[in-house]
Design brief:
This protein has helices at residues 10-19, 24-31, 36-56, 62-90, 95-105, 130-145, 150-157, 161-164, 180-188, 223-252, 263-272, 280-285; strands at residues 111-112, 115-124, 169-174, 201-203, 206-216, 219-220. The chain is of the alpha+beta class and 286 residues long. The chain has 3 domains: 1-55, no CATH class; 66-110 and 223-249, no CATH class; 112-220, Chitinase A, domain 3 (Roll), CATH 3.10.50.40. A 4-stranded antiparallel beta sheet has the order 3-2-5-4, with helices on both faces. Strands 1-6 form a two-stranded antiparallel sheet. A hairpin with a 2-residue loop joins β4 and β5 (206-216). α4 (62-90) packs across α10 and α5 (95-105) crosses α10 (223-252). The protein starts with 9 loop residues before the first helix and ends with a helix. The mean pLDDT is 92.
């Protein structure tokens, strides 16, 4: 693609995708959509057209723009260099051993909370009176006591549109996930048999009939169960530590890198930006 001011090449196209952080899979998925490739080039056209107009606009401080470009270039180079140095340092790290140490030191943090699996039929109060809702709920209870199928009754009577298509199933959940009356009734079923039905329960949403679908008592997770979570934790922690080590080493090598500071100029800048109601010494002490 060319204009009077610029051209856009396939190389620009590939660099643009790389800058977006697209791997091959994401790139293929994104560009497979109809019009996606053309949209990228349209974005380039708008970007470079306005940039060309800006280059001719005398109202724009070009020196400031050039400084910002150079500063952004330095930032990118710093990030890439740091990524490479951290990656090299991480190759020497035994994450498995660190994960085991973390598990041993903080075993109590890797507990599985108890979970209950339940299905429910909701008779909502949103479009009917409490008396009407309770009458329908009582009908449902009678049908269940007569042996009718819970799933079919959920499909017919439940006002929970998200679960009625799944025979009322909510899956497994921990304490604190549901409204209190519902939670208490569901967990009260845990010592019973799968398929047990709760008494009629009222919450702010309406009347619920709850069926037990399963129970997981929770307890201490084994290392293998907790391993994916722990590996992610120690890897992030170690990467951060390696970054700090690299930065600290660069600071320590300042003299070898030829660092020289104009202390008089530095003092003048400190004085220039010191609050008027504080002496310079106070600013320096902070």
């Amino acid at each position: 693609m060319t204009t009077n001011d610029f051209q856009v090449t396939t190389g620009d196209f590939e660099h643009y995708l790389l800058a977006q952080g697209f791997d091959d899979e994401r790139k293929a998925r994104a560009l497979s959509r109809e019009g996606a490739v053309a949209q990228v080039f349209e974005n380039f056209y708008l970007l470079r057209s306005l940039a060309a107009d800006g280059a001719r606009n005398e109202a724009i401080d070009k020196d400031q723009v050039e400084w910002m470009v150079a500063n952004y270039r330095d930032k990118l180079l710093m990030e890439r260099q740091l990524e490479l140095e951290v990656a090299a340092a991480m190759e020497e790290v035994d994450l498995e051993s660190l994960a085991r140490e973390e598990y041993k030191a903080n075993k109590e943090q890797y507990q599985s909370p108890e979970e209950v699996g339940a299905a429910h039929i909701l008779i909502s109060l949103s479009e009917r009176s409490e008396e009407e809702a309770q009458e329908i709920a009582n009908t449902v209870m009678e049908k269940l006591e007569a042996g009718e199928d819970f799933g079919k009754l959920a499909q017919e009577y439940s006002d929970d549109e998200g679960t009625k298509v799944k025979d009322g199933s909510l899956g497994y959940f921990t304490r604190g996930r549901m409204v209190k009356p519902f939670e208490e009734a569901a967990f009260a079923l845990k010592d019973g048999e799968v398929g047990d039905i709760s008494p009629l329960i009222k919450s702010r949403f309406g009347f619920h009939v709850i069926k037990l679908e399963g129970y997981k008592p929770g307890g201490q997770r084994s290392f293998e169960e907790a391993k994916p979570r722990i590996l992610k934790l120690v890897e992030g922690r170690t990467r951060t530590a390696k970054q700090r080590e690299i930065m600290t080493e660069i600071q320590a090598d300042a003299s070898e890198r030829g660092l020289q500071v104009d202390l008089e100029l530095l003092d003048s800048l400190v004085a220039k930006y010191a609050p008027e109601d504080l002496p310079t010494e106070a600013v320096e002490a902070e």
